[in-house]
């Protein structure tokens, strides 16, 4: 076939590659290089600078995986370099980069000899302009130090296959990189500007419609520029080339051109294919780049989220932090998001998401004097239907996300809309049609933004986040140059360098009646993130509930006995939990190093919380020989009041299983439920004795473990593909089934794994408890627990933060079909009018709930929990080893019982011995069970006021009374940040009693002064 490539495009590409790019620097001189490799973890500049540096030749290999090599480069500015107009003296560093991707390989931070950060070098940003404090005059000395991090390029080397590089112990010690260049260079500004002209116009040429006058004009100019620039004297004729292009660059955009608000950005994953400790350095490198760019480029504005990252900068790079602080005050460096990190929003509990804002907005206000107005989560894997209310309660007005563009089945119908949460709260939301949070402001990106923008009939503005991200790096001077050329360019959207507040203000004014999207923003992709790395998910769930206990008892001790409240300990514990809710940590999509750190972090949180609980209860009860039960949950349990302590050990009586009549299994029965367990350890019958109703469909078995092949097309730890359903093995064979105490104990072996399961029935409750200890050694397998139920449910109800939502159990539409794996917190519920069943858990998030079967008896409902996965990338050892988890089947349960079961399962009564005998009355009592007390703590400002967070849990309107069990001087309603707001729920206050009226799922924070 003939080559159909446009000859002008081909000619231009060769022209740029062979003439212009080699002429970007007029001259280069090598610097003298010495080096020192840190023997272990990274060290501060002061420590590195005083080491003995040894001679090092450019071209030599260096850098084992995850190592740090410091290079010292010295030299002198050559004669004549400072006298030439239109040039700039720079240090150019090539650490052995691949040009495939930024931020996933070697990176370096460049310092002056006195320890001042200049900027970073990365694969697509290798030049370091000398700082104004070190002017490049001929004969002047140049000395810089480069802190080179030899991070392995996991994506490039492994192509999503198993890798040993994610673990420091197995990564090896062979050098990964070769220092290719460390030199002083004289950049030709005219040639560089010509290259930026060519980038803008050659990209535009590819996007302009064929057979149009504008395309012909641009094509002609690009053809002639090749003739205008002498290949033997590119520097001398570069301006002539620019003169050829000027007329087409000066042709203004039409009045109707799409308005692209270009916001500098660098999405920095707080951990992913690198450990958290490397993110600290990525933040420094990126923020240094940004500061350098701000100081050289007018109008450029940069937005960065994640208070945790600023906190790291303050702790480890205080000088650079002060530089950032100055730019923040000038409005050029813009903190956004208001959260501690860019968190996952599917799995964190309600209070944990609240603390993301308490910590994040608190830091930004305290350290930078900023109150962020937007929530900025471009890359999280779907967004909870509870999030609009939580955002609004934190004082946010706007929301931005990008990730929903990754949907595998359905296109999001809006670019700009109002997102409505489960309680009715709406937040103005933008979904950038540029379809990336790492734009380079190319013509391709800008055209995509205009093409994808869905509200064209009524609006004309979108936000374009630009800069290298994920691994950091940020915007470059080339991107800013592209923005300047497209500020008003015919055939292109009009680009405006600005910050996010300006965009949201203008977009909301332009579209005051934006369309509404109601409910969750479900990502039709990355469904495996609800299950991968089960230990981390269990650690998160346990930490959230331990910190609830710790804060409750510490607050009670402070109010009742004047005990010092452990503000700092609790704050640090919450910072750890919130950091580890980052959207590549909690979802299970990082390298193994990250999960070793996460487990250590959860262990520290547990140690802190247990100590606070122990010290607080002993302060309340004194030392002695007593035995008490402490209930940190919101509902009374076994005679212990909610949020209180009662004398005596908690009773946990279970019925004793007995042999079934046919001798082929066992029966467990109380006054409410009768359960039959087969000889294989499966539930063949669960009868609700009150309703006279069998729940296990005829011929089916509940409590069934199922093993599926789980080999996603690409994103191993991220995805569960629908094809998993085609291959299933029911684990029906048992190696032993016996009665042990008040439980049926079942052992199973399958593949390379084994498990022990217990089945028990409480003496006085309508539920079946199942406990699992699994020694898991499968690869690319998915373990699910199935409860087929004879319940005709057209929807399933799943707990999320501060409430619940309903999802269809059918697949009527493509949206329903795509939702084949969903997230839930402590419980799910299925039911018919007047009857239901709840399944609760203590560590599981992934579920699939569908209607199955057909015939004259109609369909039944299959509730399945996803217990374990075994992905190979990026952590080939993901989930290997021992796991424990507990699940309960609550019979004849409505939503109120489901809510109570979720708390009971995750906040069991705490037995405390060695204390004085006595009880502790609750600090607070709510008289309607629909209103749940979610947190009790002391105020962030250290005033000693008590803060209580509560919400309506059943989905009903309710009036209730909250009564304080201590003297109060006032009760006011606040936002999550504990700032006074106009009361929406608080109706009246009289002495210790507050009258409240809540709409369905309403979240309320009260400040109780004392």
Automatic annotation (TrEMBL):
SMART domains: Alpha-mann_mid. The keyword Cytoplasm does not apply. It holds the Pfam family Glyco_hydro38C2. GO terms for molecular function: alpha-mannosidase activity; carbohydrate binding; metal ion binding. GO terms for biological process: mannose metabolic process; oligosaccharide catabolic process. Keywords: Glycosidase, Hydrolase, Metal-binding. The keyword Metal-binding applies. It comes from the Bacteria. Belongs to the glycosyl hydrolase 38 family. Residues 524-602 form the Glycoside hydrolase family 38 central domain. This is Alpha-mannosidase.
